[in-house]
Amino acid sequence: MKLEYVLPKDIESRSFEIIGQELKERGISIDEDKAFIIKRAIHTTADFDYADTLCFSENAVDKARELILSGADIVTDTNMALSGINKGTLARFGGRVHCFMADETVAAEAKERGLTRASVSMEYASRIEKPVIFAIGNAPTALISLREMYDNNGFKPAFVIGVPVGFVNVEAAKEMIMETDIPYIVNRGRKGGSNVAAAICNALIYDVAGSRG
Questions:
Q1: How far apart (Å, rounded) are the C-alpha atoms in residues 181 and 57?
Q2: Is 16 within the bounds of a domain?
Q3: CA 182, CA 118: separation in Å to the nearest integer?
Q4: Quick check: is 187 in a domain?
Q5: In whole angstroms, what is the distance from residue 145 CA to residue 33 CA?
Q6: Can you give the pLDDT of all 213 residues of the chain as single tens digits?
Q7: Overall number of domains in the chain
Q8: pTM reported for the whole predicted model
């Protein structure tokens, strides 16, 4: 293969051009209102399966836009996702990004109760007194905790991005969210990751800011 000379500032846009071309070549058609999210997930992973497996609840994109515009916060289950989300652009709308996984109080409580830190961190996040978008890219127990709070305590997250990666309880945890009336973007199956969670958040943030990439 020959090298393609692309200016640094044009690499991302050229990547999206290639993604669009390959989707067409593969005969894959995606809804226009979701395309900017699906393409960014593919851009992050170079995995075209996301065109088939990324699932959206009814009016999910519009609801996520409204939340960001109204200043909703984002809670992640990893510091990697926290680092990857564009916090400066989100802050323009009044939102902040949180991750409680490294909090000493969360760690101590998780150990005492025999739970994962992800589970306890979701409980802490549920106390934030404003709408929250939960962006889960690593821990299925975070999704399970959200579902348990929904069932037992009447807590309904404003939105869930559920894309944990792995093998143990990953698929079941995603399905548990999709069974509810919680607005969601979820990737069915085992694939996902903190990078995908951050990519979906950024796709939505950039869309609201008027620059989809």
A1: 8
A2: no
A3: 19
A4: yes
A5: 30
A6: 788 887 888 888 999 999 999 999 999 999 999 999 999 999 999 999 999 999 999 999 999 999 999 999 999 999 999 999 999 999 999 999 999 999 999 999 999 999 999 999 999 999 999 999 999 999 999 999 999 999 999 999 999 999 999 999 999 999 999 999 999 999 999 999 999 999 999 999 999 998 544
A7: 1
A8: 0.94
**Segment holding 176, helix H or strand E:** helix 170-178
Q: Which residue has the tokens 């939960």?
A: 134
Tell me the catalytic residues: 43
Q: 34 is written with which tokens?
A: 């979701």
CA separation (Å) from 80 to 84, 99, 151, 211? 6, 10, 29, 23
Beta strands in 22-101 (DSSP E): 54-56, 73-76, 97-99
Q: Which helix (H) or strand (E) holds 161?
A: strand 159-162
One-letter amino acid identity for 201? C
Query: Is 80 inside any structural domain?
Result: yes
CATH code where residue 161 lies: 3.40.50.10230
Counting every residue written for the chain, the total comes to 213
Q: Is residue 42 within 8 Å of residue 65, measured between CB atoms?
A: no
Residue 83 is part of which domain span? 52-209
The first and second tokens of residue 155, run together, are 């807590």
Q: Which residues pair with 111 in a beta bridge?
A: none
